[in-house]
């Protein structure tokens, strides 16, 4: 494979410098997400609930957060709402990864500014494609989907 031109080399970030915070009370599932991200070259850290996730966010803001919704003490939507009020975490993209994929929950996630929403179970390909897309877009959506009304087929 030929070497990248100098300009291209500078624009391609080293994945190992991209830190992703996984917040999920299902430790086994979070471990699988972490394993896939590390295997893809990212740096990944796991917090077992939203309170620990909030502490990790304050200590060292990540490039991206993968967050469950249904967790003890504080749910993921509440955490994201708090994140949006803090200048240091307001712009961090959040991807919800949850078993709760009803229209109301997904619509609330979008209202809060979620970068994306993945319904559990998640494949390795879905995870890595979503992470890559969110990081490239800076966590912004081109046009938020309408989760309130399912498509008519």
Provide an overview of this structure.
The chain has 153 residues and is of the alpha/beta class. It has 6 helices and 5 strands. It has helices spanning 6-11, 27-39, 50-59, 76-83, 103-111, 124-136, and strands at 19-23, 43-47, 64-67, 94-98, 116-119. The protein has a 5-stranded parallel sheet, with helices on both faces. 28% of the residues are buried.
The succession of helices and strands, N to C, reads HEHEHEHEHEH
Number of helices: 6
The CA-CA distance between the termini, in Å, is: 45 Å
Q: Please give the share of residues in helix.
A: 25-40%
Unreliable runs, pLDDT <50, ≥5 residues?
4-12, 142-153
Strand line-up of the largest beta sheet: 2-1-3-4-5
Estimated share of beta-strand residues: 15-25%
Q: Judging from the principal axes of the Cα atoms, what is the shape?
A: globular
The whole-number mean of residue pLDDT values reads 84
> What structural class should be given to the helix and strand makeup?
alpha/beta
Provide the gyration radius in Å.
Answer: 16 Å
- Assembly state: single chain
Main sheet attributes: strand count, strand direction, barrel closure: 5 strands, parallel
Q: Tally of extended strands?
A: 5
């Amino acid at each position: 494979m030929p070497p990248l031109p100098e300009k291209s080399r500078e624009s391609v970030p080293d994945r190992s410098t991209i830190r992703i915070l996984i917040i999920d009370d299902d430790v086994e599932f979070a471990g699988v997400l972490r394993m896939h991200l590390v295997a893809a070259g990212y740096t990944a850290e796991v917090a077992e609930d939203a309170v620990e996730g909030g502490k990790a966010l304050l200590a060292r803001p990540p490039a991206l957060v993968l967050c469950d919704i249904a967790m003890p003490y504080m749910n993921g939507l509440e955490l994201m709402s708090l994140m949006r009020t803090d200048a240091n975490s307001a712009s961090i993209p959040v991807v919800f990864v949850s078993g709760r994929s009803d229209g109301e929950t997904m619509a609330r996630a979008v209202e809060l500014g979620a970068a994306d929403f993945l319904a559990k179970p998640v494949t390795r390909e879905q995870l890595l494609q979503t992470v890559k897309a969110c990081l490239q877009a800076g966590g912004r959506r081109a046009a938020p989907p309408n989760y309130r009304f399912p498509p008519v087929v």
